[in-house]
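User: I've been trying to design a sequence by hand for this structure and keep getting stuck. Would you show me what you'd pick, starting by listing the structure so we're on the same page?

Assistant: Good idea, let's start from the same input. This is the structure you sent:
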């Protein structure tokens, strides 16, 4: 097995257990890195479920959903940057990495670089929070202006703020 694999702008550092796309690291679980490493090593050949079990999960039987979920996570991570789906399902046979893979080596300093989350992953929650704060401020300012406008109108009418004018009936006269 090579120490690194390059494909479609991605670099998989096997000993460092991380994947990067054009220099930006993408966080993956250790099992996801192992699955991708096996796919890259065997590309463009098909890797069967039994081969994944023997290499990635040697501790024994795995639930079919474990491999399916790991492939799903890899497709999601790779799909953000790839124009075509890089991992293909070959029905009844397994999975294959549909990319031109170039084995390589990893410089000693690069394998211990800290993980950096791509900023686009956190873009929408930040934007949604900012939008909610702006909306709340607009509503607060609007409510204060409405109260101030009512207070000014009451002063012009000569009524105390917060009270309303009710015509009072003339007191009844006694005869």
């Amino acid at each position: 097995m090579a120490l690194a694999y390059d494909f479609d702008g991605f670099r998989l550092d096997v000993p460092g257990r991380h994947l990067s796309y054009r220099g930006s690291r993408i966080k993956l679980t250790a099992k996801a890195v192992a699955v991708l490493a096996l796919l890259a090593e065997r590309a463009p050949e098909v890797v069967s479920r039994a081969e994944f079990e023997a290499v990635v999960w040697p501790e024994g039987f795995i639930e079919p959903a474990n491999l399916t979920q790991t492939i799903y996570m890899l497709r999601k991570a790779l799909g953000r940057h790839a124009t075509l789906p890089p991992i293909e399902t070959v029905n009844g046979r397994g999975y294959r990495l549909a990319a031109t893979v170039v084995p390589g080596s990893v410089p000693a300093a690069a394998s211990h670089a800290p993980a950096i989350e791509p900023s686009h992953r956190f873009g929408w929650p930040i934007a949604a929070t900012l939008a909610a704060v702006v909306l709340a401020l607009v509503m607060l300012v609007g409510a204060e202006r409405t109260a101030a406008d009512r207070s000014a109108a009451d002063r012009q009418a000569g009524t105390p703020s917060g009270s309303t004018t009710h015509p009072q009936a003339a007191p009844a006269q006694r005869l």
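That's my pick for every position. To get oriented when you compare it with your attempt: Confidence is low (pLDDT under 50) at residues 108-122. The CA atoms of residues 7 and 100 lie 6 Å apart.
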